[in-house]
Design a protein that fits this description.
The complex is a heterodimer of chains A (439) and B (92). With 439 residues, chain A is an alpha+beta fold. Chain A has one domain. Helices cover 34% and strands 27% of the residues of chain A. Chain A has eleven helices and 16 strands. In chain A, strands 6, 7, 8, 9, 10, 11, 12, 13, 14, 15 and 16 form an eleven-stranded mixed sheet that branches. A three-stranded antiparallel sheet of chain A has the order 1-2-3. In chain A, strand 15 and strand 16 form a beta hairpin. The two termini of chain A are 19 Å apart. Chain B has 92 residues and is of the alpha+beta class. Chain B has one domain. Chain B has three helices and two strands; from the N terminus they run αββαα. The radius of gyration of chain B is 28 Å and the shape is elongated. The chains are: A alpha+beta (439), B alpha+beta (92). At the A-B interface, helix 3, helix 5, strand 9, strand 10 and helix 8 of A face helix 1, strand 1, strand 2, helix 2 and helix 3 of B.
Chain lengths: 439, 92
């Protein structure tokens, strides 16, 4: 069974307008707030929260607490979602790689809607009206919170165009791209509050000598986002961060109207493990930055991140696909903070010309400098006495450092850049966007 | 001998000059074509890591003594404040 949020005035489907932050009817131009919709539908406010108030001040806060408070027995710590957690009949792993489709019926025109097994909202291919698979949301697990879209479709396209147009090495074909698809999708995320505390022993080198550093540190990560969709690339989801979770609101299915959305298919236990792993890495990296010297190695650690609270949330992302030289490229825009994620191919001719021009400037200057440096080094070696080997050693070390600072760093950065372009061009992301009903 | 200075100098100059040029070109391409690549840090999800105690330049023995001294873990000032406030509230 599907649901559509109908306009009380004319009966057309209402869609959420990020610019107005209201539910708008494109037919009679009426606009309603979520409070007005709830009143008209005779719904109770969610968790007795003031409607539109950030969810963190209501349900979220009631379940969140510090370990200190937990120890004191002040508030329950941990998960309250698991009691309600219901997965679809087929297991998550079984459906990976294949996309089972379900046939639902559009309430407006009666046409058949094809939705994959995780979609929670889409559009009717015949009448174009926004459709929500309400039964799926109720049967599986209703999200606790949602961050509504703050970036409209037009704005998302505009900021991508502006950014691409500003790039000096971006081909004209990409600068003047034709949008293949632009879809606003609510991605399911688990939000965790995680407490990390650890005493660590770090090995490091300073000059010729080896030392150890001791660190006692702690950290509380709040609303730590862990993506809950198996089909959406994890690398992309991490780069979309951070979301401003202070603006999340209690979930209402009406927010899905006008956008695509998926339910979670990575359950909370699996997501907890992923979140813990990432929290440990972030914690260790930050502590490592406080350790002096080089060759830093973590030798003693007992870090076991503690999950204090979890929440199932829907977060907004715009996906824009365009084609360049027969390859699809998908650029993402955080639907709340406007942060863009992606990388595009460069103009090879221009890059080579710049390289040759710069090399032609630097090489002669450096050649003269090194020739004189070589001359002085040989003179020191011939006439410098017993300690003459020392400056030569420093000179060779300096050349090795220069090589690694230029060639090694450049090649590493170039490889990273290629990886980012590959991610933007990945077929899995393109499929994630493509396999949805066109409006 | 004079030719040796020049030949090695020219070779080094070409190699490092080309490396420097490559590094600059890659940086220019990244700033132009990389639309967004940063990922979150702990500061995006709170106040970041609080270092409660730090000591550098220790020997292995001294480090082990600190790590296994059996002392209760000192929580950060922030956590301790929350805990104390809640305890005070309960006591009142």
């Amino acid at each position: 069974m599907t649901n559509q949020i109908k306009c009380p005035g004319c009966g057309w489907t209402l869609e959420y307008d990020p610019a107005l932050k209201k539910f708008c009817c494109i037919f009679c131009c009426s606009a309603y707030t979520v409070d007005e919709l709830r009143n008209m539908r005779g719904e109770e406010p969610v968790n007795a929260a003031p409607l539109g108030a950030p969810a963190g001040e209501t349900a979220g806060q009631a379940r969140t607490d510090s370990p200190a408070a937990a120890a004191a027995g002040a508030l329950p710590v941990g998960n309250t979602n698991r009691d309600r957690l219901a997965m679809p009949e087929e297991g998550i792993r079984k459906v990976r790689g294949t996309i089972p489709m379900n046939v639902l019926t559009c309430r407006s025109c009666g046409a058949e809607l094809m939705m994959n097994h995780v979609e929670a909202s889409s559009f009717c291919a015949y009448c174009g009206q926004a459709t929500i698979a309400s039964e799926r949301i109720e049967d599986w697990l209703e999200p606790d919170t949602i961050i509504p879209f703050e970036v409209s479709r037009e704005e998302a396209e505009r900021i991508i165009r502006e950014r691409l147009y500003a790039g000096d090495f971006i081909p004209e074909g990409i600068k003047n791209f034709q949008t293949d698809r632009l879809r606003g999708i609510y991605i399911p995320y688990w939000l965790f509050d995680i407490y990390c505390a650890d005493t660590q022993g770090w090995y490091y080198k300073s000059g010729k000598y080896s030392y150890y550093a001791y660190r006692a540190a702690d950290c509380k990560l709040q609303n730590f986002t862990t993506e809950a969709s198996a089909r959406f690339n994890d690398e992309y989801s991490v780069k979309l961060e951070p979301f401003d979770t202070s603006k999340k609101v209690p979930f209402h299915e009406a927010y899905l109207s006008g956008f695509y959305s998926d339910r979670f298919d990575v359950n909370d236990e699996e997501a907890e493990n992923l979140a813990r792993l990432r929290a440990v890495k972030l914690f260790d990296d930050e502590v490592k930055a406080t350790v002096p010297g080089s060759n830093k190695k973590l030798e003693y650690t007992e870090l076991k991140p503690e999950i204090l609270h979890e929440e199932y949330s829907m977060l907004p992302v715009w996906f824009m696909t365009f084609r360049y030289e027969d390859n699809p490229y998908t650029i993402l825009v955080n639907g709340q903070t406007r942060k863009m994620v992606g990388a595009v191919p460069y103009v090879k001719r221009k890059a080579i010309a710049t390289f040759v021009a710069l090399a032609a400037i630097f090489s002669p200057i450096l050649a003269v400098a090194f020739s004189y440096a070589n001359y002085f080094m040989i003179q020191i070696l011939l006439h410098g006495g017993e300690d003459s080997g020392k400056p030569l050693g420093y000179y060779i070390a300096f050349i090795v450092v220069l090589f690694s600072w230029t060639w090694v760093a450049a090649i590493r950065k170039y490889r990273h850049m290629k990886q980012c372009i590959g991610l933007t061009c990945s077929t899995s992301t393109n499929r994630f966007v493509k396999e949805r009903t066109d409006r | 001998m004079g030719a040796f200075y020049w030949i090695t100098g020219i070779l080094l100059g070409i190699a490092i000059g080309a490396g420097l040029a490559l590094r600059i070109v890659v940086a220019l391409i990244m700033s132009s074509n990389d639309i967004g690549d940063s990922s979150g840090t702990t500061k995006d999800f709170g106040h970041g890591v609080t270092i409660c105690e730090k000591k550098n330049g220790l020997s292995r023995k001294k480090l082990e003594k600190r790590l296994y001294s059996g002392r209760a873990f000192i929580k950060s000032r922030r956590e301790a404040e929350v805990y104390l406030k809640q305890r005070q509230d309960r006591q009142m």
